[in-house]
């Protein structure tokens, strides 16, 4: 009889890749319809509501990610992959029922919007340190690949067949993802470290995420890395929440150009995280890859801060693609400094910090736009439903126009300074790590044990040949030696 918990085949990175691609492809289809729904429903309050929705979702993700990650370290990854994908995608069909229900459920879905952390823990279970960085790069590239074509497909289907067709397709893809996890994905966590039944008791220490959060402050390496994640992802979250409107209303991109921009940046990110990332890890090491990614991020934020022309934005997009090595590099670093039974919780901490940034980033960017009297208004439409380019139609302070100001994107300059601070902190990350999560072997002890093992083996061999020791006694001695070594 087929056991759905065992899935099909052996756990592999490709299972994680398919899960992540389907989930974010479904949401990528909804990119343009969600913006249009926000505009139709809330009009002048669309950015306030969007900030509120993302803020609640991000804060809930910050609270839940370490807990779900810790529980997955005990109960296994598959059940929590199923839970996170189901809850994250549940709001999609509600767009056809009620906008209010849709945005309310989208906010609450933050309680389980931590698929990334469970997927990274899944990958850590089945890879060694040598191959883990490349595997993380492949997973992150999959995220970029899911956004290469999905917004364009969603935009085209919406114009050709209406919003209902887009929502139905996204719902079908999300449902297929759930079925794929249920029927095809095998468990990655070894059976011997999991409870035999769901009724088996576990201690609060096993499931308490705050115990691990407290360790962040005690472990200097993990603390430095978490601060780097926070300061680098804060502007990234704010940037991506406003990039569609910014490119349209400030730079003059049409909606079709925005879709093309996403595709080009996405393809460039895929190439960066697959072909380039592994090579960089071998050449310069994990820490220097993080520093290099932060350098690229500073460059693209500066281009967004001062750029007024389309070619500058395209150059910024290439730099943004190169900076996409940040997240897999940081995730690989935190995985390498953590033990096997802590992968879920430490990845959950990183995902929780990113969730918090997803709430704070858009709010900070919106506040800075308002302080500098930059108002990103709703997108005007032509009579045939196409968007109208709006270069220089952005509302600025009456004292100057876009052509006169030297800083059209003040929030991006703020982001530049936070990433510079993140880079200074990352500079103190060790190239060779040792912390409370890992037991670094002592070479002298290893050598002594190795010599002892050789001597014991030779003695046992002579005893067996002379008949002084039985096979059962020989096996018993070997088992005792393995237990003492462990």
Automatic annotation (TrEMBL):
It is found in: Membrane. Residues 462-486 are annotated as: Disordered. Coiled coil: none annotated. The chain crosses the membrane at residues 12-35, 47-68, 80-96, 102-123, 135-153, 165-185, 222-247, 259-281, 288-306, 312-334, 355-374, 412-429. It is a multi-pass membrane protein. Residues 475-486 have a biased composition (Polar residues). This is Major facilitator superfamily (MFS) profile domain-containing protein.
